[in-house]
Write a structure and sequence with these properties.
Layout (H helix, E strand, L loop, with lengths): L2 H9 L5 H19 L2 E4 L1 H16 L11 E5 L26 H8 L3 E6 L11 E2 L3 E2 L15 H8 L5 E6 L5 H7 L2 E4 L19 E6 L2 H11 L29 E5 L9 H16 L3 E5 L4 H19 L12 H10 L4 H24 L2 E5 L12 E2 L2 E2 H6 L3 H6 L3 E6 L6 E6 L5 H12 L1
Parallel strand pairs: 2-3, 2-6, 9-10, 9-11
Antiparallel strand pairs: 1-3, 4-5, 6-8, 7-8, 7-14, 11-15, 12-13, 14-15
Helix pairs in contact: 2-3, 7-14, 9-10, 9-11
Length: about 450
Amino acid sequence: MTIEQAAAQLRAREISSVELVQESLRSIRQAQPRLNAFITVTEDLALEQGRRADEELARGFDRGPLHGIPYSLKDVFATKGIRTTRGSKIFADHIPDRDSAVYEKLTEAGAVLMGKNGMHELAYGITSDNPHFGTIRNPRNPACIPGGSSGGSAVAVASDQVFFSIGTDTGGSIRIPAAYCGCVGLKPTSGRVSRYGVLPLDFSLDHVGPLTRNVGDAARVMNAIAGFDRRDDTSSRQPVPNYFPPPEFSLAGRRIGVAENFFTERISPAVAAAFEGALNKAEKQGAKLVPVQVPAPGDVNILGRLILLVEASAAMEPFLDRQDDCGPDVRMLLAQGRLISGADYVNAQRLRRTYQRRWAEVWERADVIFTPTAPIEAPEIGQTAVEGEDIRLASTRLVRPFNVLGAPAISIPLSTSGLPAGLQIAARAFGEREVIGIAHLMAN
């Protein structure tokens, strides 16, 4: 069931929000021992919010399409009075005294919080194999990783434990789990959704966005959470559109950029075949495939990794005396970040702006570009390399550039005969409406 379908049933009095909550709780209890998608389940709060939604709808007070709908949050979003662990032993008992902007907006929209999702420690990795809160497993094959760092969020959505979840994406952390688990994941333009109250991994690369069961639901959630926030100095004042494209929106005449370099290199046969199928589908719907040479995406990736190393270490500077409480992979990355010079960091940020300007030429030639989300299917838990490439680098290779650029990108499921794969659709800054519209047509 989608948000749209559940919302219609709620308003027709065919089902109640409390019943949706109870079904979500049953699903969580059943799946938790096998998949481990949650760190904290907020059962009492969910039942209270569900009863309130039913009372409001009964008296004609309708907060919109998310009213009464169960959802979850990645455990980096501050929730007043509810522990927010960041997937870390360091923050295992952290109880915020404020709410994040996203949680405020979703509460105002009447959505029902079921709990806080598990994640890769400190949001700093792609396996979601967490040494403190346990391994999170892929619902399509529990022997495989779900991706990360928003692994628990993707698992909760893909296994129908909740209707949607909110994750963060610093180098692919929404889109990679979406691709590996077979759901939809949207990384909006930098600043489109407020990061106020989000425990940071990286001050300039973090993005906030939804994971959903379909593209239409991603638009519904974006309509609720996007917008300027005076408490967040990275928040954009750009006007927020209705993220649903008009009914007449079509692929006919759309220019779909297909990279001739980097984004189609070193792709697994299964992913390559699925991606080729997506290109054929777009052409059949009237889109024009436009070959493009994208400016130095490998260099952009290097810049992104360098910036992340420095800024993540800076974010954790107050907790250096607790570094031994981190897992070995995170501890190593934090140590590497402290070895990078200030000059290297400043030069990386200067080059970042240069590449943002150079990528403007791509958007002059194409309305969006299509790429695979990840070049591989979900690796097995404990696997460290594929075809000689480190799992982390392979998983982030095709998604990280759009964090550096700050451009919107969505991952939607590709049709495969085995494990899920993802189609990534990216556009110029603040082009979410175009991205969502084309994704919706490609997914149907």
